[in-house]
Design brief:
alpha/beta; Nucleotidyltransferase, domain 5; 7 helices
């Protein structure tokens, strides 16, 4: 499953709008090891914060932060050469990435998204598969709704699934 290089990504959003990213984290994995961690606050296009109680981020913390469009050129480098982008409940993060790119007039990355909810269901037949449940199953640390902690957990889910698949393949011979 894990080709040589992938990036796990997590967004936190300020409001219901998919373009309201207020925090992003990217964790780059090469040859089975985490080699880069990026975490940034983002100034969303509106001052409305509906989800502060979930992630703890408020307008006062991001009012001087760069916009997604200002930040993306530096973050895009983290995706260079990556085979895929991993995210937990990937349709959400893919939607946020598309909406933020569109709002900033940028082309979204071409890599496909791999959903770690699906990875966990296939690899370990887990239910429920919320991120805290999967992390508990794998013994991974997690500060849920901290973008960097969530992205790192996603990277480790992909790595654990790949390792289990490889071990199962080796045993099956």
């Amino acid at each position: 499953m894990h080709q040589n290089c992938f990036v796990a990504l997590d967004f936190e959003t300020a409001d219901q709008g998919r373009d309201s990213a207020c925090s992003i984290a990217l964790v780059r994995v090469e040859k089975g090891r985490i080699v880069q961690r990026e975490h940034h606050l983002i100034r969303p296009p509106r001052r409305t914060f509906q989800f502060t109680s979930i992630h703890g981020i408020s307008w006062s913390q991001v009012s001087d932060a760069p916009t997604f469009g200002e930040l993306w050129p530096q973050l895009a480098a983290c995706l260079e050469g990556a085979h895929f982008i991993a995210a937990h409940n990937a349709s959400f993060d893919a939607g946020v990435l598309r909406a933020c790119c569109e709002q900033a007039g940028l082309r979204p990355p071409s890599q496909p998204f791999v959903c770690t909810v699906q990875v966990a269901r296939r690899a370990w037949n887990l239910r429920p598969t919320k991120l805290p449940d999967v992390c508990r199953h794998l013994g991974l640390p997690l500060r849920h709704h901290d973008a960097l902690s969530d992205a790192e957990a996603c990277a480790n889910i992909v790595l654990a699934a790949a390792q289990d698949a490889t071990a199962g393949f080796a045993r099956g011979r």
